[in-house]
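subagent[fold] <- orchestrator: predict structure for attached chain, return tokens only, no commentary.
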Amino acid sequence: LYTEALQADQAYLPAFIGQAEALFRLGRVKDALPRYQHLVYGYKLDVFRPQLARLELRAALSQPPANRRWADFDKAAAPADPAVKRTKELDIILAESLVARGNKEKAADLLDGVIRTDAKDVSAWIALARRPTSPELRGALAGAEKFTPDEQNRLLRGVGEAAVRFAAAGPAEEGGAYREFAVDCYQRAAALERNDLTSRAVLIDLG
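subagent[fold] -> orchestrator:
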């Protein structure tokens, strides 16, 4: 529907937003990224900055560590107005980028600050689970039942994504166990949310 609407009128903003959001939910980074860049930098819609920052982070992490360039991410993660405080969501995404850049202590401090403000923030706990130690990763699901189904879904997807990263970055002999753990996380996430197309797409990729 969005594609048909845009074929009729390329400037029809609701269809442009709908298409961008659909691509984002499907995890199609290369397709979604230029659309969110246009929403934030072209239309000046700062409300979509977290999604843009998330996509820029995924794009950077898809490259080998030596080839990663962070300028586009840093631009996306910074509020358009320097006087405006960065949102909690952007703090969490920035922390994830700091982990990827090897600045784990600064990332932990940033996330601890978010959690001190809101101890129930699931996204912050997810990001902490991405700190590269196996015990933290597996322990991140402890007590998950206290969250709502939607929050459990997000937690499982976050921890599953971390497991996939460990599988790719760690020794080959450890990769199988992390992949199995990731599959379990995404299967549980998909079972909690019928419309979770992202988890189902990842499960297909994981085989």
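orchestrator: received. Logging for downstream: The radius of gyration is 17 Å. The chain has twelve helices and no strands.
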